Amino acid sequence: MFDFKERPHERIRAVAGADCKDAFYRPSDPNCIMTMAHTHQNVRCDGSLVQSVPSEVDIYGLLDEIKNNCSGNYGNVNSFTISQGGTYILSYVGTNLSTIGYDLDEWTDKYKDNIDKMIKRNKFTVANQEAFFTKFLKYVVKINGLEVYKKEGNVINKLEYNSTTKTATKTPCPN
To answer: Alpha-carbon distance 79 to 88, whole Å?
Structure first.
């Protein structure tokens, strides 16, 4: 289980999920959640594979939380996805999410279609998922200030789509 370092004013609680579903953790204070975390299991009960990278619902959940509960306070709001492929961090560093619209149904159609193609073509590697996800953020989600990072060992790398190499490039964050 993810080791949360509790802040004195913030208690973490698990939100129960159904068997074979991803676990979700969040602070018990419903006002402007500063950190959300959940896991992606390797395989569901029905045997279907689960992606390592955050899902379109993870993106929507982060943006919806910020837009509806944070009253313009966007600093340091993060969503963690812990999976077999690593720990991914979604962060919004923009300044005005209230005027941005997004369509979860459109995102879901495009996201699931691409994940299904990777699985069918036996290309469901972490590197391919990261390339897809960063491309998805850049060309489908298209929200300036929405960033994704990956923790690898003691290093946190910013992931960005490189249209020349068609891969996710990693840039280490300064300490």
So the answer is: 8
